[in-house]
Amino acid sequence: MGVIRIIKATDREQLNSLLDKRNEDIDQLTARVAAIMAEVQQNGDAALCAFTRRFDGANLSTSQLKVSPAEIEQAYTMVDQEVLASLRLAKDRIEKYHQKQLSRSWFQPEEDGTILGQLILPLERVGIYVPGGTASYPSSVLMNAVPAKVAGVSQIVMVTPPGADGSINPYTLVAAAEAGVTEIYKVGGAQAVAALAYGTESIRRVDKITGPGNIFVTLAKRLVYGQVGIDMLAGPSEVLVVADSSANPVYAAADMLSQAEHDRLASAILLTHDTELATAVSQELARQLAELPRQEMAREALANHSAIVITGGLAESLALANEFAPEHLELLVEQPFDCLGQIKNAGAVFLGAHSPEPVGDYLAGPNHVLPTSGTARFYSPLNVDTFMKKSSVISFAKESLRRLGPDIVRLAEVEGLQAHANAVKVRLKEL
Known about the structure:
Elements: E1 6-8, H1 12-19, H2 26-56, H3 69-78, H4 81-99, E2 106-109, E3 115-122, E4 125-129, H5 138-151, E5 155-160, H6 170-179, E6 183-186, H7 189-198, E7 208-210, H8 215-224, E8 229-230, E9 238-243, H9 249-260, E10 267-272, H10 275-289, H11 295-305, E11 307-310, H12 314-324, E12 328-332, H13 336-340, E13 348-351, H14 357-362, E14 388-395, H15 398-414, H16 418-430
Helix pairs in contact: 2-7, 2-8, 3-6, 4-5, 4-6, 5-6, 7-8, 9-10, 15-16
GO molecular function: histidinol dehydrogenase activity; NAD binding; zinc ion binding
Protein name: Histidinol dehydrogenase
Pathway: Amino-acid biosynthesis; L-histidine biosynthesis; L-histidine from 5-phospho-alpha-D-ribose 1-diphosphate: step 9/9
């Protein structure tokens, strides 16, 4: 039996099972998350230390929650210098890409003296969540902190769970220092989101929280939305590959596995009208899977949340891709740029055989924090605008109010808002 199912696009029952997004029973989890967050609201740092002992095995005092400058200096002595050079290269490329997204405040004067405009300002204080514990994700640090820095955010607060010995991975610390993070705290999970949203004795509340995490982090972000801003509600990772007869099955299988190894709930889908390619990719998946250290994780993702879908042609493959609205969309086709105009829904689009998804994860420049679970229909990748806010500017001249005031009065009165109308009428009388 193969490691992945092969289905036909005409089999709507199986296709719909793929389109139905992978959800856990969140009611019970939400109650647990809410209880954790209430505890942090009530007991502050003491609750953070208690949850860090319970979930991470790290016995920290309140004075040890914040990473010290000495710990960051020590981290620089522990990292491989070639890796550090690669991190700096990635940081520079991410920074240059995001600088192109910057918008400026603008003002438009009119002939009668009226001035209309828009103030575009950075948020003052943001929190970024970075997964941690036994893992190290310096790329996630860069992808969250660099756009915030480019936007002009003056206070970038990072939270990440510590290892059992109370330390943070040195690569995570070095990436934070390189990216301009101003504060780092050894706390993770829902309790970290609560600290960022509500504040504790050590951690001042932030204006917005960004960054991916597990289901507890995602539910916590959902609960605090409105108290603070959030970037998006991230789900399991996913890749969708559209391939034609020109595609290399080795490449397609490798790219699918690059997502399947993330998580048991991850999804890897191939859409192709070439049945021979479908068979070859299926065989490659089995061969490459056997060589992966995380093969059990990937095997479960392939078996439960992935498929190779046989379509009626490239046009149908592209239409289905839009229906999936994937986090990562790869076009392994002979003329990928010819297809780009037909793409409506995708977090990031990778064109051609030499643009595998990991290029975007680490070093290309665009952000790898992307909408998942079909939310690319209405969400965008993390970007500079995520860390900015806009205010409208209105300065009406006398002549403008004299000329347009009666229209404003009529519109206010038809809505039954007499006080609105009167605020204009009293000025019109003087004019």
